[in-house]
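Lab notebook, bench 4. We co-purified these components, and the gel suggests they stay together. Before we commit to crystallization screens, I want a quick structural picture of the whole thing.
Request: model the full complex, all chains together.
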Amino acid sequence: MKLKRIPWISYLIILIGTVIMIFPFLDMIFSSFKSASEYSKLNYSLLPETFVFDNYRMAFEQLKLSMLFKNSIIRSLAITLLVLLTSSLGGYVLAKLRFPGKKLIFRFVLSTMMFPAFLFFIPNYYITVHFPLVGGNNIFGEGGYGGLAASMAGLIVPFAVSGFGIFLMRQFIMNIEDAYIESARIDGAGELRIFFQVILPMTVPALATLAIFEFIGSWNEFIWALLMNSVNNELATLPVGIQMLKSHLDPTLTQPLVMAGLVIATIPILILFLFLQKYYVRGMMNDGLK
Amino acid sequence: MKSFGLRKETVLAYSFLIPILLFYTIFLVIPVVFSFVISLTEWGGFDLESMTFVGLDNYKKIFASDSTFLDPILTNTFVFAFGSVALSFIAAMMVSFLITRLRWQGLWRSIYFLPAVTTIVAIGNVWLYIYNPTNGILNEILTSVGLKPVNFLDNPSIALWAVIAVSGWLGIGGAVLILTAGLKGIPHDYYEAASLEGAGMWRQYFSITLPLLRPTILFVLITSFIGGLQSFTLTLVMTRTGGPGNSTNVGALEMYNQAFSFGNWGVASAMAFVLFVVIFIITMIQLIVFRKGGVESY
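Here is the predicted assembly.
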């Protein structure tokens, strides 16, 4: 196209846009080095007068950052592994096996993606807290101290299956030749072995996409983690812990601390994303153009 | 595929599917039914014996003439979804059109996508600082050019738009991603042929790019509109209860606060259902539009 004649205008517009996209992140990083008194001062400046590292030290002390970090990592890893397993199992069955009810189940899986998340907060909160036979509950889900939410399970189990994941894996596994499965069967391989040793290795690109997608998604998830934290405050994840710090103490004093916490919570994920963005983008495109 | 016995295959399939079906039963099917039952009761969410059946009272309350749910909350929900989509779509059309012609396309795309992989808690808090009436950058800019400072989030006529601006900013990256994929799908020959015929840049854009991008555009617009109707985390972080008054309150946030701040699980579930039906109708319209608009396999 003829736009090549005026590329500098394109670069200019894109650069202005880049500043608008990145500025809030810079503001977050620089203000995490401002002292509380400078932060509440009348005039704004992007850069702190002197770089103060105290916020990070205090954030570590007041936030129980190591607990938050541990919870966030355990939760994200567990959800990611579970979703990889359930999605590839479901995807394999729906792509390669013939059985009555297959079309119905596939339609059902697709339709689960249409249900809005907010519909489930209320009933699933009750179901999770009153889950039978866990967290001290009896068979009727009563008498315990939090049901699934008595442990990390409350943060993990309600996210163990993803309709999007099953769909993604099915589309990918459909393209694998049936001959691989048939010859493995002729060689006498068991069905579990076919799945784990023949199919799974071939789906690594799709698994990578799904993994990065789920890891970032569950790292950032906020509302459910907030609800679980209200049952059991040992379950706070990074976003929840930081937000709680803010609402409890004097806002003007804690704001730079909050910024320091947010830097710790977001920057590792942003770096992870930049390194693996190829896989992430592929998943988004697939979602967009299925 | 050569079958190794339909019965054996069926047993195998269902034994692989058991965990998934069990999960969906516990965390999707039962909850939807349970949620509808709750919406017909008055309940604080404690033990099941304390539930009192009230029929359609909660729905009547929601649709009563003095109810705040229809106006301003549901109106706000639509304004919020419409405003965010409009902002992010217009920006994303420009950005995706430009970056497919620039070097370092992947880099630009990633930069515009950064907010989408950042937790809303961070986004909300940073923008609270940017909007801060005394020491935020926006008011620093306004006062330095001689304007009066604006209390973005305390002024009921501005607050909703202040949150919408952040939500629009947040949505640009996702739309850019899908639109650039759509743009790449348009064969290059079309443009070459058009150039040979003497069609200029704008002519090419309106006669080739826009019509061929139509399915992608439809997809972006409708899915992000539906997403916007469901969204409430940003509003929760930035204004907590949807204040001042109800000026920034949206449907899902009101449902959340009714249940988890005020303990009105019945009313909250009825609200969730009303909002769900609204979204469901729009989703159905989407399916019809997509089938007609040529988005494949819907």
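The mean pLDDT of chain B is 90. Worth comparing against the SEC data before the next meeting. The longest strand of chain B covers residues 41-42.
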